[in-house]
Design a protein that fits this description.
Structural class: alpha+beta
Shape: rod-shaped
Number of strands: 15
CATH topology of the largest domain: Immunoglobulin-like
CATH architecture of the largest domain: Sandwich
Distance between the termini: 35 Å
Largest sheet: 8 strands, mixed
Radius of gyration: 33 Å
Oligomer: single chain
Order of helices and strands: HHEEHEEEEEEEEEEEEHEHH
Strand content: 25-35%
Length: 322
């Protein structure tokens, strides 16, 4: 078992060495034979026991005569073998780099964040918008899932608008005012959205009773990079604090707000084509109480990932030289 592990490790190291210098070794092997013919080994002789016949040197292996190539034919074949080993090593290094890339190495950096108004004051009955933006986009994104939690005793969601969003396809819109949960999912085709900052959507809340209330992005929120792996690049989840004042909003202004809201939500002023495929099913409240926490990698996982990232950099360096 130990010998097998050692053999694999040594083979892996030699593979990387030969991928870089194998071709040069092959060239100097031939040149060195002409200068010092008895100082280089025959690959075939090295694999055979004392007294066995070497088909390249056309001679029996003997310590007395040495295990170097005995003829020009043997030298040429040994040189070709070294070239073949070098080519195979290069292919294996390339394959290794592709596998590491498929495994998500290196990971796409988490740089994006949701942005909402940090605070505000509103009256009881007032309908107010909360615009959702995304900043810190260093890698193009093509899918976003916004999951927001709030206190349903203080607030309720009256509607969601995608007017002016950078996303062109929306697949899910869920509102649950019983448990205080709202979701909006959407995105856009390849090559994705590549600007540093973009507007995603607007959630319209209505204040129900006076008091402070927090609105926060849940850990199930997603900002997926268009990197071929769908990497979640959320850097941090934000929240906002609002104060609902103990004063009623004028009823006539509420009706005016609703009229404006209907026009905005229906997108009458929109000049951007959007495809909307909303799920008709209502949200289950358990989703709020049983949030899917994003697990943090252990020290061993982080160390292993770091090692693989360095290995990929080394493979890319080798391939760039070639």
């Amino acid at each position: 078992m130990i010998k097998g592990i050692v053999f694999v490790i040594v083979s892996w190291v030699l593979m990387h060495i030969f991928s870089v210098v194998g071709i040069f070794i092959s060239f100097f092997y031939l040149v060195w034979w002409f200068i010092f013919p008895k100082s280089i080994p025959c690959l075939s002789c090295r694999t055979k026991a004392e007294g066995k016949y070497c088909s390249l040197c056309k001679n029996n292996v003997s310590k007395a005569t040495g295990r170097h190539p005995k003829s020009f034919y043997s030298v040429i074949v040994n040189t070709l073998l070294l070239i073949v080993i070098s080519i195979i090593s290069i292919g294996l290094v390339y394959l290794e780099s592709r596998v590491l890339l498929k495994l998500g190495i290196p990971s796409t950096p988490k740089t994006a964040s949701f942005v909402i108004p940090a605070k505000g004051q509103h009256l009881v009955g007032e309908i107010f918008p909360m615009k959702i933006e995304i900043t810190g986009i260093e890698t193009p994104i093509n899918a976003v899932q916004v999951d927001i939690g709030f206190d349903p005793l203080v607030l309720e969601v009256v509607d969601i608008s995608t007017e002016g969003s950078f996303a062109t396809i929306f697949i899910q819109q869920e509102i649950n005012n019983e448990y205080g949960y709202v979701r909006l999912s959407g995105g856009l085709p390849n090559p994705g959205f590549d600007q540093n900052k973009g507007f995603f959507g607007t959630i319209y809340f209505q204040a129900k009773i006076p008091g402070p209330v927090n609105i926060e992005f849940l850990p199930t929120s997603l900002i997926l990079a268009n990197d071929g792996r769908g990497s979640d690049i959320i850097k941090e989840l934000v929240s906002a604090s609002y104060l609902i004042l103990a004063e009623d909003f004028p009823p006539e202004r509420i009706e005016a707000q609703k009229a404006i809201l209907r026009a905005d939500v229906l997108g009458k002023k929109s000049d951007q084509t959007q495809l909307i495929f909303f799920d008709e099913q209502k949200v289950l409240g358990e989703k709020v109480n049983k949030e899917i926490q994003k697990s943090k990698p252990s020290i061993f996982q982080a160390f292993g990932k770091s090692v693989l990232e360095q290995l990929l950099k080394f493979d890319i360096f080798i391939l760039s030289i070639l």
